[in-house]
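Q: My labmate handed me this sequence with no annotations at all. I'd like to see what the chain might look like in three dimensions before we decide whether it's worth expressing. Could you predict it?
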Amino acid sequence: MDELNAFEMLIGLGAGLSIFFFGVYEMTLGMREAAADKLRAILERFTKNRVSAVATGALSTGVVGSSSIVTIMTVGLVSAGLLKFANSLGVVMGANIGTTLTSQIIAFGLTDFFGIVLVIGAVMRFVVKNERARAWGTAIMGLGFVFLGLEHIEATMAPIRHWPPFIEAIEQMENPFFGILIGATITAIIQSSSATMGVVIILAGQGAITLPAGVAIMMGAELGTCVDTLLSTIGQTRAAVRTGVFQLLFNVFNVLLLVGFADQLAAIAQSMSPGDDDAAIAKQIAHAHVMFNCFGVLAALPFTTYMAKGMMRLIPDKAPVPVPVPVPSTDPNPEVGSGAGH
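A: Here is what I predict for the chain of 342 residues:
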């Protein structure tokens, strides 16, 4: 691959990511207009216990398509006092599970239907008169653009599997720690674990990424996705900051817990989608993504009460500012003294 082709490939990748992020923006805009109040009400209502909170976070993220959006909304609800901090932990953990739906969609080739999705969304947005239906049309069109962006990335990145420097880099990424570092860095830069995983699964489907490298990058992506949540806590209440920091610590906990079992995780994923062809490896990485997050949640779920208390100690509420108490005058005749100059 010469310099010109490498440049064109990078431009094509950038264009595909631009379409992807435009789709995410449109999908978020449509969802906000169509169902933001309902989603907020669901988060408030169905987070009374740890299990329902996890389920709510997973389902909300599956619908919205972004764990960052759900987590940032959760931070906002905590900051506004509408959601208890302890209940927000389950939502954050569930959001990690919900975001794996995108990996499954890509691995099973559902992005091929971007044309149908775009047409349905366009009809709903520009033909239907009902305002709520038009908002849903915007969201569906956004989803279509997400699929289109991923399809463009797939077409653009096809030649990379024959590029020697890339092959050597992938061999290095099979080292879990190097792969985690790369995954975290890329995701922190583009601020979307879904986009990172989309590219990884697309490359795996083209034979450019091995299963061990894909699993390592996936773990790193789970760390990098915490950056935008942490940024959203700037200027928020202490409870909101706790929620953002908890997401980071929880994902670090997941990586430390399961990085030593990466081979076993890969083996289970292989048993779920047997085969060593490119399509099977793409599905195996997507399955590993699901299992990684599910195992982490199952390991942490019984201890959410203790984790909430620990976060309270790590980031305590600000001490109230003492109100100055007026000192009584020692002058026995203050009125007489004040009038001495007249």
